[in-house]
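Thread: Histidine kinase, structure

OP (GT): Posting the sequence first so everyone is looking at the same thing. Length is 359 residues per the record. Can we get the structure tokens written out before standup tomorrow? I want them in the notebook alongside the other entries.
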Amino acid sequence: MKIAGAFLELGRRILLHSLLWLIVLLFFTFFFGFQGADFSTILTFSAFFLPVTIGTTYVFIYRLIPAYLILKKYLKFFLYSVATFLISATYITLSAFYGIIMTLGYGYQENFPLTKSLIYILISVYLVVTIASAFSLLKYNYSTSAKNEELKNRFLEAQLKLKEQELQYLKMQIHPHFLFNTLNTIYGLSLSKNAATPEMILQLSELLDYILYQTKKPVVKLEDEVGHIRNYIDLEKKRFRENLDVQLNIDEIPSNIELAPMLLLPFVENSFKHGKGNDGKFKISICMKLIDEMLRFKIENSISGEIDKKESEGIGLKNLKRRLDILYENRYNLHIKNNKSTFKVQLDLNITKKPTDVS
């Protein structure tokens, strides 16, 4: 099948080139016309210059241009071009003499002044060579541009697939990390047969629904994310009881505000996991405001002086930073401050545009 296709393509190219050279022959016939000669005589005379025209043209478009000009070997291209012109000019001159002798005999002096007509012949031949070479360069530039565009699209497609795979991997990291800590909370209460355990299981089921189904969407409503943050905090309140002090300061949220799912909730989860007070009490403050086109989310939790920066950040924040890089590149600022008694995180997020859809 491939061989048949190759032969078909070769036949098509031969037919096309034959047609083009037939047009060139007719052009020569028109350009070389002289007084007293009929059409068949001029056609025969013009045919003497067709081989040298074809040879010179093919030398340029198939050898000199691709091997030297395109590769920017300008000196070699110039030298070989000069040599080609000198050789072809010699052949053109010889063809003119033989053409005159073969078609007009020896009576060309009166009707065909060679010194004048030879200039026209050279101009005609090199005009064809120049046009063919220019067309070859344009075709090459178009082909190169198309190939570059195709390579660019393939590269972008490969990058997109890599980001999609990475984002899926990051989401997979969030789910077990978040569930592990939540299940530990319920397990601790179940050991003491706490009456709040069934309610916590119900709340966890709602969180599971959010994690398993809502996170498959590219965006969710901000109010839904906040609702699950409140749900999660209620779960943690049942675990810490009087040892937990939570302050929530959240602006009223318009229903049309959207963001990537599970983007704020892991910040809260990270604070509960690593937060700890020196006096045995755990304090956490969450503030969320909408400032023009910016969402500002601040969370601060008490920590023990024994906890270092690496432990307080953990895998959760590293994960979130990478997700923000993928989904909100150049549209967010994340500030993390750790001192001996508090751990602070502030996220400023541009919410006017939807996150990059790679999931």
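GT: Both are above now. Quick notes for whoever picks this up: The CA atoms of residues 161 and 221 lie 26 Å apart. Strands lie at 220-221, 244-250, 258-259, 282-291, 294-302, 332-338, 342-350.
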